[in-house]
Amino acid sequence: RSDLLSGIAPGLAAFAEPLFVARAALPGLAHPLHAIELDRYLAARLRKSFDASAIVVHEADALAFDFGSLLAGRAPDGARLRIVGNLPYNISSPLLFTLHAIAERVIEQHFMLQEGVGAGMVAAPGTSDFGRLSVMLQVRYDMESLFDVPPEAFDPPPKVTSAIVRMIPLPQSSLKIEDKSLFARIVRMAFSQRRK
Predict the structure, then answer these.
(1) Between 20 and 30 A from 65 (CA), which of 95, 102, 121, 196?
(2) How far apart are the C-alpha atoms of 184 and 182, rounded to whole Å?
């Protein structure tokens, strides 16, 4: 089996460059890295910085990108994706829901996102951070908040702390939801008026 590595919003390659160094330690990892970058200038910079055999840059909006297309032509039990990214704060939740659709073709996902979003992803029932995002993701993934990243780690520093979260899809056999659409609607309604 030959797995693929996909990077979301690689920007100036702060994530991508170390991944090239580390990929030798990932057995079966196919080359190249697939990078999804919306910014035309940053996409061009990535193409100039790395050999075409090392990176394929998809100049696209990650919310509209078909991640399944990266596995087109491969057997369902064949290659799977490893997805990493420094998710733009304004699209992190919608993107996590979008990736839900291909979870069975994913080995693992590692994302850096706003600390509040990360806290909601891994929140336990009964806590103040527990909400729709918690339920919808935890029913599909085993998740762990690995560590926080302080604002001073960035230049310029943002006004918020970031968090690194690991998401490993649960086996299909463990999913007990017969009507996913109905489940999603009920969860959305349940958390639309939390106090009630």
Answers:
(1) 121
(2) 5
